[in-house]
Specification:
124 residues; mainly alpha; globular
Length: 124
């Protein structure tokens, strides 16, 4: 249990008038704060907005990657209900760590092929 109580940040005044850009920025900042707090406390999953904020990509793009098998996630749903995706923190950390270790630009497509081969028990 945490001794600290995190206060919910107030949306910017421009967001109150439903300025879309201001509101999106506020939500993205909030997702990043949540993701960093989860990372610091060892929570093993991120929401799609949180993972997208950590990867500095749009959540729409991350949804597309997940839906096409380009990035690992767990689809949480019952039968045919809509549900939601949960992104393993290890996937985000592995991608970023591998990019750092490569010392150059890492292509997501190649990383995904290696990730899929590893879970299938093969080699890339």
């Amino acid at each position: 249990m945490h001794d600290q109580i995190m206060e919910e940040p107030e949306p910017p005044a421009e967001a109150e008038g439903r300025n879309p850009a201001s509101w999106r920025g506020f939500l993205r900042d909030q997702a990043l704060r949540n993701a960093l707090q989860k990372r610091a406390t060892g929570v093993p999953t991120y929401s799609v907005p949180e993972a997208a904020a950590l990867l500095s990509i749009s959540q729409e793009y991350l949804y597309r990657l997940i839906q096409t098998g380009g990035f690992p996630a767990v689809r949480m749903r019952l039968r045919s209900s809509q549900g939601r995706y949960v992104v393993p923190a290890k996937a985000v950390e592995s991608l970023l760590g591998d990019a750092f270790s490569a010392g150059s630009c890492l292509e997501l497509d190649e990383w995904t092929k290696r990730w899929q081969a590893n879970i299938a028990g093969g080699a890339a």
